[in-house]
Amino acid sequence: LKVEERTIELKRVNEQLLADIVMRRRAEAALAAEARFLRAQIEVAKVALSSLRPEELAQPLIETIGRAQGYANGALWRVGEDGRAVTMVAAFGEGSIRFVGMSHDLSEPTSYIAWIINTGQPAFRNRISESPYGCSLIARTLKVQALLGLPLINRTGRVVGAMTFADMEEADRFTARDLTQGTVLAN
């Protein structure tokens, strides 16, 4: 009787383990599909930014990428010829467009965009108001809660700009999954 009870229990545990394995494989497949989608977006951005008229593509490009990921606001930034400043060349989301044309000095320690460009690394910062970056004009005006920054890197390895995305409602919006977009290679 005890052997039968133990056998039934082991079968039940085994069935649960098999069900857990199936669920895990499905979750892994979904994450892999999302990563492929994000890589495709990067390739689209690379082609668009290398076109003969990137100034015409900047606005629809940043908006398309942002909306596809469910981001409320976003901006595309370009490093100036002298490499000392970065300028917002396109934006989307409530209140963001008025900042197009705004420049930041790349040596400014409280500029999130300067930090992304200077490090050349994708990064996110949740609870932005609790950081030095929360004091920027854009962050204060738009009441930014969280930021994601993705550098744009040309073929020579030089950072030529960045994409930033913001959330104004959820202070813990971004995770490491958002970083799978990584850096974007731009011509």
Structure description:
The chain is α+β, with helices and mostly antiparallel strands. The chain contains four helices and seven strands. The chain has helices at 2-49, 54-69, 112-119, 137-142; strands at 73-79, 85-92, 103-105, 123-126, 146-153, 159-167, 184-185. Strands 1, 2, 3, 4, 5, 6 and 7 form a seven-stranded mixed beta sheet that branches. Strand 5 (146-153) and strand 6 form a beta hairpin. Helix 1 packs antiparallel against helix 2. The radius of gyration is 22 Å and the shape is elongated.
Shape: elongated
**Helix-and-strand structural type:** alpha+beta
Percent range of helical residues: 40-55%
- N to C succession of SSEs: HHEEEHEHEEE
On the 0 to 100 scale, the average pLDDT is 83
Distinct helical segment count: 4
| Count of DSSP strands | 7
The separation of the N and C termini measures 73 Å
What are its keywords?
7 strands, alpha+beta, 4 helices, seven-stranded mixed β-sheet, 187 residues
Summarize the structure.
This protein has 187 residues and is α+β, with helices and mostly antiparallel strands. 33% of the residues are buried.
How is this fold's topology laid out?
Layout: H1 2-49, H2 54-69, E1 73-79, E2 85-92, E3 103-105, H3 112-119, E4 123-126, H4 137-142, E5 146-153, E6 159-167, E7 184-185
Parallel strand pairs: 5-7
Antiparallel strand pairs: 1-2, 1-6, 2-3, 4-5, 5-6
